[in-house]
Amino acid sequence: LVSEENVDAKKDMLNELESILLMPQGYNRGTTPIEVPQRPAKSYLDAYAEYRNGVSLLEKPGAVLVQNGEIDAWKRLKRQEKAREDVDEVRAALNYYTSNLNFNPDRFVLTGTREEKSKLIREDKVPDVKGVIASDMGLRYLLRNDVLTGLDDARAELRYQMKQNVAAAAVDGKDLLDLLLAAQKALNKWFDLIGEEDVRAAFEIVSREK
Question: First CA to last CA across the chain, in angstroms?
C-alpha cells in the first residue's frame, strides 16, 4: 500500500488485510473453552486466611469484608475479560495459552551473568518462587496488552482506509504499515517468552493437522 500505485492492486491488498484482520481466523480451533472461575486461586485464599489469623479479634470482621470485596471485584473482572474474549479471538488465544501454563512451585532457574547472580545472593535479594511467577505473568499480560492495542489500532486504521476513495488512489498505507509493524514487534516479544520445547510441540501439532 505504501509504494503501490496501481489502484486495483491497492484494492486487492485492502481486501486481503480485511480478511486477515477483520474476519475470524479460527485461532482457537480445537481448544476447550475456559469457563469463568468461581473463586480465586488456592494460594490467594490460603494467604488471606493466614493474614486473617494474624489480625486481632476486632480487625477480623473488617478483614473478611475486604477479602469479600476483592473477590467480588476479581469475579467482575473475570466476567468482563471473558466477554472481551468472545469478540476478540486473538485475546482469547493469548489468554488460553497463559491460562494453561504450569509453574513448578518449588524451584526456578535464576538467569543472568555470574556477577549478577553473586550480587543477588550476597545482598539476599534472590526472589522467591511466588514473586517470580507473579512477575512472569505480569510481563506476559503487559506484552499481551501491547499486542491487542497494536491490533486494535491497525484495525481502526484499516477500516478508515477502506472508507477512502480507492478509485482516486486516496489510500495511504504508511500509518497502517507502522501500526502493523508495532503489533508484530509486541507479538514477537510475547512469543520470546515461550520455551523452545513448547514451540517444537506446537510445530508438530500444526504439521500433523496439514
Answer: 31
